[in-house]
Amino acid sequence: MKKGLSYILIVLFLLAGTVSCIDEDTGLNDIDINQHAVDSYLLAQAVYDDFIRVVALCYVSRPLNQQGEAMIDSARAYKMGNGVIMIDYGDNYIYGSDSRLKKGHFTLEFFGGSFFSPGSGAYINLEDFYISQNRKVKGRITLTCLDSAASAFPVYSYELRNGIIDYQKDGKYEIAYATDYVFYWENLRQSPEDLSDDSLLIVGKSNGRSFQFDRFFNTIRDTLVKPFACKWIKSGHVFMSMPDLDISSVYLNYSYTSSGDTSASHCDPSIWYSVNGINSSGMTLDTTGKRTIPY
To answer: What spatial distance separates the first Cα and last Cα of the chain, rounded to whole Å?
Structure first.
Protein backbone atom coordinates (compact mmCIF):
# COMPACT_ATOMS: atom_id res chain seq x y z
CA MET A 1 0.00 0.00 0.00
CA LYS A 2 2.80 2.37 0.91
CA LYS A 3 4.55 1.52 -2.34
CA GLY A 4 1.40 2.32 -4.35
CA LEU A 5 0.96 5.59 -2.49
CA SER A 6 4.56 6.54 -3.29
CA TYR A 7 3.92 6.01 -7.00
CA ILE A 8 0.82 8.19 -6.81
CA LEU A 9 2.73 10.96 -5.04
CA ILE A 10 5.50 10.83 -7.65
CA VAL A 11 2.96 11.12 -10.48
CA LEU A 12 1.21 14.03 -8.79
CA PHE A 13 4.55 15.78 -8.28
CA LEU A 14 5.45 15.38 -11.95
CA LEU A 15 2.04 16.68 -13.02
CA ALA A 16 2.41 19.68 -10.75
CA GLY A 17 5.78 20.45 -12.34
CA THR A 18 4.27 20.21 -15.80
CA VAL A 19 1.32 22.42 -14.97
CA SER A 20 3.57 25.05 -13.40
CA CYS A 21 5.15 25.58 -16.83
CA ILE A 22 1.77 26.59 -18.22
CA ASP A 23 0.51 30.17 -18.22
CA GLU A 24 -2.81 30.26 -16.33
CA ASP A 25 -4.38 32.84 -18.65
CA THR A 26 -3.36 31.44 -22.04
CA GLY A 27 -2.68 27.76 -21.41
CA LEU A 28 0.64 28.15 -23.24
CA ASN A 29 4.07 26.87 -22.28
CA ASP A 30 6.67 29.48 -21.33
CA ILE A 31 8.58 29.09 -24.58
CA ASP A 32 5.36 29.43 -26.64
CA ILE A 33 4.74 32.86 -25.14
CA ASN A 34 8.30 33.92 -25.96
CA GLN A 35 7.83 32.74 -29.54
CA HIS A 36 4.61 34.77 -29.85
CA ALA A 37 6.49 37.89 -28.74
CA VAL A 38 9.28 37.12 -31.24
CA ASP A 39 6.76 36.62 -34.05
CA SER A 40 4.99 39.88 -33.17
CA TYR A 41 8.26 41.78 -33.38
CA LEU A 42 9.32 40.07 -36.63
CA LEU A 43 5.99 40.96 -38.26
CA ALA A 44 6.08 44.59 -37.09
CA GLN A 45 9.70 45.05 -38.14
CA ALA A 46 9.04 43.72 -41.65
CA VAL A 47 5.79 45.65 -42.15
CA TYR A 48 7.07 49.05 -41.06
CA ASP A 49 10.52 48.75 -42.64
CA ASP A 50 8.88 48.21 -46.03
CA PHE A 51 7.55 51.78 -46.08
CA ILE A 52 11.13 53.03 -46.52
CA ARG A 53 11.25 51.14 -49.81
CA VAL A 54 8.02 52.81 -50.99
CA VAL A 55 9.33 56.25 -50.02
CA ALA A 56 12.52 55.58 -52.00
CA LEU A 57 10.55 54.42 -55.05
CA CYS A 58 8.48 57.62 -54.94
CA TYR A 59 11.53 59.83 -54.60
CA VAL A 60 13.31 58.37 -57.63
CA SER A 61 10.19 58.03 -59.84
CA ARG A 62 10.48 60.34 -62.83
CA PRO A 63 6.79 59.99 -63.84
CA LEU A 64 5.69 60.94 -60.33
CA ASN A 65 8.08 63.87 -60.08
CA GLN A 66 7.51 65.18 -63.61
CA GLN A 67 3.88 64.31 -64.32
CA GLY A 68 2.47 64.05 -60.80
CA GLU A 69 1.33 60.43 -61.05
CA ALA A 70 2.87 56.96 -61.30
CA MET A 71 2.41 53.32 -60.37
CA ILE A 72 4.46 52.64 -57.24
CA ASP A 73 4.46 49.19 -55.62
CA SER A 74 1.42 48.33 -57.79
CA ALA A 75 -0.47 51.26 -56.21
CA ARG A 76 -1.57 54.52 -57.81
CA ALA A 77 0.70 57.26 -56.46
CA TYR A 78 -0.26 60.85 -57.15
CA LYS A 79 0.50 64.32 -55.85
CA MET A 80 -2.26 65.99 -53.85
CA GLY A 81 -0.64 69.40 -53.40
CA ASN A 82 1.31 70.96 -50.54
CA GLY A 83 3.96 68.27 -50.93
CA VAL A 84 1.58 65.42 -50.03
CA ILE A 85 1.60 62.19 -52.09
CA MET A 86 -1.20 59.64 -51.88
CA ILE A 87 -0.32 55.94 -52.22
CA ASP A 88 -3.60 54.23 -53.08
CA TYR A 89 -3.88 50.43 -53.38
CA GLY A 90 -7.66 50.54 -53.79
CA ASP A 91 -10.50 49.01 -51.81
CA ASN A 92 -9.68 45.41 -52.72
CA TYR A 93 -6.53 43.48 -51.98
CA ILE A 94 -3.82 43.54 -54.64
CA TYR A 95 -0.27 42.25 -54.67
CA GLY A 96 2.41 44.88 -54.26
CA SER A 97 5.60 44.64 -56.27
CA ASP A 98 6.98 42.64 -53.33
CA SER A 99 4.22 39.99 -53.78
CA ARG A 100 2.50 40.94 -50.51
CA LEU A 101 -1.25 41.53 -50.27
CA LYS A 102 -2.23 45.15 -49.53
CA LYS A 103 -5.24 47.42 -49.75
CA GLY A 104 -6.29 50.91 -48.66
CA HIS A 105 -4.04 53.94 -48.75
CA PHE A 106 -1.51 56.09 -46.89
CA THR A 107 0.14 59.43 -47.52
CA LEU A 108 3.71 60.61 -47.48
CA GLU A 109 5.10 64.11 -47.44
CA PHE A 110 8.65 65.12 -48.30
CA PHE A 111 10.00 68.13 -46.44
CA GLY A 112 13.13 70.26 -46.46
CA GLY A 113 14.10 70.08 -50.12
CA SER A 114 16.51 67.42 -51.36
CA PHE A 115 16.06 64.07 -49.62
CA PHE A 116 19.86 63.92 -49.30
CA SER A 117 20.25 67.23 -47.40
CA PRO A 118 20.54 67.30 -43.58
CA GLY A 119 17.21 68.30 -42.06
CA SER A 120 15.18 67.06 -45.01
CA GLY A 121 13.07 63.92 -44.94
CA ALA A 122 9.59 62.49 -45.20
CA TYR A 123 6.52 61.85 -43.06
CA ILE A 124 4.53 58.66 -43.61
CA ASN A 125 0.98 58.83 -42.29
CA LEU A 126 -0.81 55.49 -42.06
CA GLU A 127 -4.50 56.23 -42.06
CA ASP A 128 -6.38 53.44 -43.83
CA PHE A 129 -3.86 50.82 -44.90
CA TYR A 130 -4.24 47.03 -44.57
CA ILE A 131 -2.07 43.97 -45.03
CA SER A 132 -3.33 40.38 -45.48
CA GLN A 133 -5.93 38.90 -43.10
CA ASN A 134 -7.61 42.31 -42.80
CA ARG A 135 -4.94 43.60 -40.41
CA LYS A 136 -4.97 47.39 -40.23
CA VAL A 137 -1.59 49.13 -39.98
CA LYS A 138 -1.53 52.43 -38.10
CA GLY A 139 1.07 54.97 -37.03
CA ARG A 140 3.28 57.84 -38.16
CA ILE A 141 6.85 57.42 -39.41
CA THR A 142 9.32 60.29 -39.61
CA LEU A 143 12.46 59.88 -41.72
CA THR A 144 15.02 62.67 -41.29
CA CYS A 145 18.34 63.07 -43.07
CA LEU A 146 21.14 63.65 -40.56
CA ASP A 147 24.53 65.26 -40.99
CA SER A 148 26.50 62.52 -42.74
CA ALA A 149 29.81 64.34 -43.27
CA ALA A 150 31.62 61.68 -41.24
CA SER A 151 29.90 58.78 -43.01
CA ALA A 152 30.46 57.22 -46.41
CA PHE A 153 26.67 56.92 -46.79
CA PRO A 154 23.66 59.20 -46.20
CA VAL A 155 22.36 58.78 -42.64
CA TYR A 156 18.70 58.97 -41.58
CA SER A 157 16.79 58.74 -38.33
CA TYR A 158 13.72 56.52 -38.40
CA GLU A 159 11.08 57.20 -35.77
CA LEU A 160 7.81 55.30 -35.64
CA ARG A 161 5.20 56.51 -33.18
CA ASN A 162 1.82 54.99 -32.29
CA GLY A 163 2.49 51.97 -34.47
CA ILE A 164 -0.35 49.44 -34.25
CA ILE A 165 -1.08 46.32 -36.29
CA ASP A 166 -4.76 45.78 -35.52
CA TYR A 167 -6.19 42.32 -36.18
CA GLN A 168 -9.71 43.84 -36.28
CA LYS A 169 -11.02 41.60 -33.51
CA ASP A 170 -12.47 44.14 -31.05
CA GLY A 171 -9.04 45.06 -29.71
CA LYS A 172 -8.32 41.53 -28.51
CA TYR A 173 -5.38 41.08 -30.86
CA GLU A 174 -3.09 43.90 -31.83
CA ILE A 175 0.64 44.50 -31.94
CA ALA A 176 2.07 47.80 -30.70
CA TYR A 177 5.42 48.95 -32.04
CA ALA A 178 7.74 51.98 -31.87
CA THR A 179 11.29 52.58 -33.11
CA ASP A 180 14.26 54.85 -32.57
CA TYR A 181 16.49 53.71 -35.40
CA VAL A 182 19.27 55.25 -37.40
CA PHE A 183 20.04 53.77 -40.80
CA TYR A 184 22.89 54.24 -43.22
CA TRP A 185 21.80 54.12 -46.87
CA GLU A 186 24.51 52.15 -48.65
CA ASN A 187 25.15 53.00 -52.34
CA LEU A 188 22.46 55.70 -52.54
CA ARG A 189 24.85 58.44 -53.69
CA GLN A 190 26.50 56.25 -56.33
CA SER A 191 23.25 55.41 -58.17
CA PRO A 192 20.32 57.39 -56.74
CA GLU A 193 17.86 56.19 -59.39
CA ASP A 194 18.82 52.50 -59.13
CA LEU A 195 17.81 50.95 -55.82
CA SER A 196 18.66 47.37 -56.77
CA ASP A 197 22.16 47.55 -55.28
CA ASP A 198 21.20 49.63 -52.23
CA SER A 199 21.01 48.41 -48.64
CA LEU A 200 19.88 49.88 -45.34
CA LEU A 201 22.32 49.41 -42.44
CA ILE A 202 20.13 49.74 -39.33
CA VAL A 203 21.15 50.41 -35.72
CA GLY A 204 19.20 51.47 -32.64
CA LYS A 205 16.31 50.27 -30.48
CA SER A 206 12.65 49.38 -30.74
CA ASN A 207 9.91 48.37 -28.34
CA GLY A 208 6.36 47.17 -28.38
CA ARG A 209 3.73 44.77 -27.17
CA SER A 210 2.87 41.37 -28.63
CA PHE A 211 -0.62 40.27 -29.63
CA GLN A 212 -0.64 38.50 -26.24
CA PHE A 213 -0.07 41.95 -24.64
CA ASP A 214 3.44 41.14 -23.41
CA ARG A 215 6.02 43.93 -23.65
CA PHE A 216 9.31 43.63 -25.52
CA PHE A 217 12.34 45.92 -25.73
CA ASN A 218 14.87 45.33 -28.49
CA THR A 219 18.46 46.43 -28.95
CA ILE A 220 20.32 45.85 -32.21
CA ARG A 221 23.61 44.26 -31.15
CA ASP A 222 25.04 43.78 -34.65
CA THR A 223 23.97 46.06 -37.51
CA LEU A 224 20.89 44.83 -39.40
CA VAL A 225 21.39 44.73 -43.17
CA LYS A 226 18.25 45.15 -45.30
CA PRO A 227 18.93 45.07 -49.07
CA PHE A 228 16.32 46.67 -51.32
CA ALA A 229 16.59 43.60 -53.53
CA CYS A 230 15.29 41.37 -50.71
CA LYS A 231 12.03 41.50 -48.75
CA TRP A 232 13.70 40.64 -45.46
CA ILE A 233 16.62 41.64 -43.29
CA LYS A 234 19.47 39.31 -44.28
CA SER A 235 21.97 39.69 -41.43
CA GLY A 236 22.51 41.14 -37.99
CA HIS A 237 21.63 40.34 -34.37
CA VAL A 238 18.95 41.62 -32.00
CA PHE A 239 18.66 41.17 -28.23
CA MET A 240 15.04 41.05 -27.00
CA SER A 241 14.10 41.78 -23.39
CA MET A 242 10.62 40.66 -22.26
CA PRO A 243 10.10 41.86 -18.67
CA ASP A 244 6.58 40.42 -18.33
CA LEU A 245 7.66 36.84 -19.06
CA ASP A 246 9.38 34.23 -16.90
CA ILE A 247 11.98 33.72 -19.62
CA SER A 248 12.81 37.35 -20.15
CA SER A 249 15.43 37.39 -22.92
CA VAL A 250 15.83 36.06 -26.44
CA TYR A 251 18.67 36.51 -28.91
CA LEU A 252 17.83 36.71 -32.64
CA ASN A 253 20.25 35.94 -35.45
CA TYR A 254 19.14 37.18 -38.87
CA SER A 255 22.21 35.72 -40.54
CA TYR A 256 20.73 32.22 -40.36
CA THR A 257 19.35 30.78 -43.62
CA SER A 258 17.20 27.65 -43.91
CA SER A 259 19.10 26.61 -47.04
CA GLY A 260 22.53 27.16 -45.53
CA ASP A 261 23.30 29.75 -48.21
CA THR A 262 25.18 32.66 -46.63
CA SER A 263 26.28 34.26 -49.90
CA ALA A 264 25.76 37.94 -50.61
CA SER A 265 22.77 37.12 -52.82
CA HIS A 266 20.79 34.99 -50.36
CA CYS A 267 17.30 36.19 -49.43
CA ASP A 268 15.56 34.17 -46.73
CA PRO A 269 12.75 34.86 -44.20
CA SER A 270 14.27 32.49 -41.63
CA ILE A 271 15.95 33.65 -38.42
CA TRP A 272 17.58 31.72 -35.60
CA TYR A 273 16.71 32.41 -31.98
CA SER A 274 18.27 31.32 -28.71
CA VAL A 275 16.60 31.35 -25.31
CA ASN A 276 18.34 31.15 -21.98
CA GLY A 277 16.46 31.58 -18.72
CA ILE A 278 14.50 30.04 -15.88
CA ASN A 279 10.89 29.12 -16.55
CA SER A 280 7.95 29.37 -14.14
CA SER A 281 8.72 25.96 -12.61
CA GLY A 282 12.29 26.95 -11.78
CA MET A 283 13.84 24.93 -14.60
CA THR A 284 16.71 26.42 -16.59
CA LEU A 285 16.04 26.48 -20.33
CA ASP A 286 18.84 26.82 -22.84
CA THR A 287 17.40 26.17 -26.29
CA THR A 288 17.59 27.34 -29.88
CA GLY A 289 15.24 27.17 -32.83
CA LYS A 290 14.10 28.65 -36.12
CA ARG A 291 11.38 31.22 -36.70
CA THR A 292 10.09 32.51 -40.03
CA ILE A 293 9.41 36.20 -40.58
CA PRO A 294 5.60 36.17 -41.02
CA TYR A 295 5.38 38.79 -43.78
So the answer is: 59
Q: Give the pairing type, strands 215-227 and 235-241.
A: antiparallel
Q: What is the pLDDT of residues 114-129, one digit of tens each?
A: 777 889 899 999 989 9
How many whole angstroms from its chain centre is CA 225?
13
Q: Which residues of 239-268 are buried (b: 16+ CB within 10 A; e: fewer)?
A: ebebeebbbeebebbbbbbeeeeeeeebeb
- Model-level pTM greater than 0.90? no
190 secondary structure, DSSP code: T
Virtual CA dihedral for 75, 76, 77, 81, nearest 10 degrees?
Answer: -140
Q: Which of 80, 136, 131, 74 is nearest to 108 (CA)?
A: 80
| Angle (CA) 208 103 181, round 5° | 30
Q: What is the DSSP-derived secondary structure letter of residue 19?
A: H
* Residue 261 pLDDT level (bands cut at 50, 70, 90): low
Alpha helices in 68-174 (DSSP H): none
Residues 201 and 7: their CA atoms lie apart, in Å, by 59
Sign of the alpha-carbon dihedral angle for 238, 243, 245, 246: positive
Q: Which amino acid would we find at residue 51?
A: F
Residue positions counted in the chain: 295
